[in-house]
Specification:
The complex is a heterodimer of chains A (517) and B (515). Chain A has helices at 11-24, 31-47, 49-60, 64-90, 127-139, 152-165, 178-186, 198-211, 233-245, 265-279, 296-307, 358-366, 381-389, 425-431, 444-448, 461-468, 479-506, 511-516, and strands spanning 93-94, 107-112, 115-119, 142-146, 171-173, 191-195, 215-218, 223-227, 255-261, 312-315, 319-320, 325-326, 329-332, 349-355, 373-377, 395-398, 419-420, 433-440. With 517 residues, chain A is an alpha/beta fold. The chains are: A alpha/beta (517), B alpha/beta (515).
Chain lengths: 517, 515
Amino acid sequence: MTTLKYTSIEDIPKIHETARKAFESGRTQSIAFRKEQIAQVGWLIKDNEDRLREALHADLGRHPQETDLLDFGSALGEVRMAYDNVEKWVKPQKIDFSLNWFPMGPKYVPEPKGVVLIIAPFNLPMFLLLGPLVSAIAAGDAAVLKPSEQTPATSQLMAELVPKYLDPELYHVVNGGVPETTKLLELQWDHILYTGNGRVGRIIAQAAAKYLTPITLELGGKNPVVVDPKVDVTMTAKRLLWGRFSNAGQICLAPEYVLVPRDFQDTLVEALKEAYHSFYPEGPEKSDSIARIVNEAHTSRIKRLVDETKGKIILGGQADVSKRYIAPTVVRDVPLDDSLMSEEIFGPVLPLVPVKDVDEAISVIKAREYPLAVYVFSPDKKFQDKVFKNTKSGAAVANETVISAGVPGLPVGGVGPSGYGYYSGKHCFEQFTHYRVSLDNPGWVDKVAFGFRYPPYKPDYKKYLKAINASLPPRPGKAAAKSLAKRWGFWILFALVGASSVLLTKSGRLPQLKARK
Amino acid sequence: MTTLTYTSLEDITKIHQRARDAFLSGKTKSIAFRKEQISQVGYLLKDNEQRIKDALKLDLGRHEIETEFFDFAAVYIGVRTAYDNVESWAKLQRAEFNLNFFAMSPKLKAEPKGVALLVSPFNVPVYLTLSPLVSAIAGGNAVVIKPSEQTPAYSALLAELVPQYLDNDLYHVVNGGPQEMTKVLELRWDHIFYVGNGRVGRIIAEAAAKHLTPLTLELGGKNPVVLDPKCDLQLAARRILWGRFSNTGQICLCPEYVLVPRDFQDTLVEAMKEVYHSFYPEGPEKSDSLSRIVSQAHAARVKRLIDETKGTIVLGGQADVESRFVAPTIVRDVKGDDPLMQDEIFGPVLAIVPVDSIDEAIAFINARDTPLAVYVFSQDKAFKNKVFENTRSGAAVANETVITAGIPGLPMGGVGGSGYGYYGGKHAFDEFTHLRVSIDNPGWVDKVAFGFRYPPYKPTKLIAMLSPSLPPRVGKTPNAATKRWAFWLAVVLVGAASALLTVPGSGLLSSRSKL
């Protein structure tokens, strides 16, 4: 196992200072510079794909295909999107035309917040570290990256590669554990983006409060799945197991439990068994397609949850703590007060919770904290809508799991205890950006409109204010009457015009027109 | 003075629960309902303009023109904007087309965060309660408003009017002081929108951290003015003094100090004297165009700053703590370490700080907390840009003060010490909503594209095909030249081909052209 070299505590404030100075140098104001650095993040990955795959295999026992899809694919997607759009994102925005204000040329300009701190978790260490980095670069910020100490090989490689590919004064990697992170949090940042769990999220929010630092928190949650018996059960089973077992279940968007109608559980179980055997034809122990748990502590935590369940294990259930191995596991007839329902499992274990119907499923979800995603498997739009409209979550996904995080243009973000703020694309760019308002008011404006504001105050101000004031919308309850009145007004007018034209044509004034012909 | 009835501590918990239940009832999902409530906020104000003006006269000794201009106008604009646009703000939006993902019909929709808490300050109490309220209603939230206990007449009136005009289960007013506020902050909110100062801002942020509650903080800051000697001096003097003395300087966007070239200070002071006398021809004591400080404590604080300054008072300087009166005051030759340059003055005192150059002015600004606004008075584009590009602030305003807050469509918000998040129209709506994403992935997508993802993993080219291409490597721009060559090559080929085609008798084109 690679030993990760921790950054010395004394160096951390120096790194912070270097980043601040580099930010203040103003070199990130150049969009060409930002694009160059964004492209370099792409090449950092591209040139070192094999080394990164190996590092992630060492850290998470992960098959390179998962690394390619979940980590490289999404990080490169961010690179491309930011590279192609950063000019558009940084353009000053004009407001809708308004007669009262247009001479002042009001607009708002996206400006960098300054020096940002990005703290990434162990589970998708490339995407969740380099994805936000790309957004921070696009916004023009300096950034300090704190990768997870739980993925020593990858984090070590990041510390080696980042200074090689990127401006070494603006962008830094700090490695370490709790003391190093504590030191980082003592410093003043202009934004902190943290991905991880709610416990650490609270610590980060407390530290940020002292400096009034804005934060983005991407936390987890127990993501429910609601299954409609009318669904294509083979497809459902495959996508459920894929989402739950990818990266050995260590994805914040992974489905954590399935709410299934009691009389449909057997059917679903059969389909899950079939999918399971197609995934691991020789059993999961021999498969190279299942990742390992990040460390022994988490492995024994998950093992304990499985050991204590009152549900019935129908697939998997084996665990080997010293090898950080948990077999992909499916448990049926799991009650709501079960060990598996007590916390985010964050491992390859899928509990099936039988319920009476969709209403009971909804009330189970509503009784818990808001998750990052609510999943529904159903071909029926009404069924989907019923679940989505009556629940809250970061994402509302039908007939799929996990994948929404990789869709360009869709922000990733929680609500309530699953966090706040957004990842990905323009939305993440905005996290690292401050919209600075600007205007320039010529002197003549006071002569025509805004001169009334100066003391001594005189009663004629009212006529000027009247011009600025917006009219009110109709008073509720009066709307119908008013539009009816308007319609009457229209018909009266129509009748009048008709009558007068009749009069005009009769009175012989028309010949003038005729004569012209 | 009106006595403000404080909400009982037990009631605070009940109100919070009632708001939550009302939110969960789903009533706010209807856009028609939201529009009705938005419109009612407008009528709450319209029907009671005189009572509100009277209340603010009591609380702040304010002339009604200031109330109408700062407090009412922006609310009416906010009501109209939200009413007219809430459908489009809350509409389901499609993500941009992407070949790999369009089959999943990716969409996003702004959904309410839940129960929002608005904590408002005393200085512009109508605008800073009702404007975020309108945005929160447009977002579909339940709302509890905590107005300032320092404006008792207004806050009591608001507690009376809100239940008369708005849904009684969803929208509430809680009145009280620190004790009530502490109770309020123990509860879990889905968003807190606070306008006030950094000290309380920190307390609120720490309370919010416990519940992982997202925040909008609109704080103050010492807003500098940089004056270019080549500016329209009359105009600058008028607009600076107007901004500083309006609402007796109790506006978070007020200019707090002026950085002026040392040799131009005399000229500026003369111009300001002239404006001052035009504002208060019989002296400020007799003027009805000047508000009072909100409390005796604040009046005493502002008085102390004036008493302790080492600068030279050129105008004003009088204060009467008991009647909460502080005369509009201008102090020249103020240094960076002066008492006037420490905390936000938040009163009608303008400090003039002489500097030797524009670079010194910029360094002076950058050595302090990031302000809410940086003001420049200049006709010179290069001068303005130099200041704006080398400083940070919520707003960068040329030849004007304060007025930005009232302009519809601008995201008003601070940065650094002046807070974060935005108020105003759609931007505040975004603060109170969460973008919920959705996809629906048909089964056939696995057959054509995403089937490779399932174990057992086999070597596949599909990931590479789905992956976006990389932008050019740094220093390798010749790539573009190759492209250009390819383009010209194509032009030549097309040209040659069409030439061949048009040769008489050789093809369709020539025969057609004869028709």
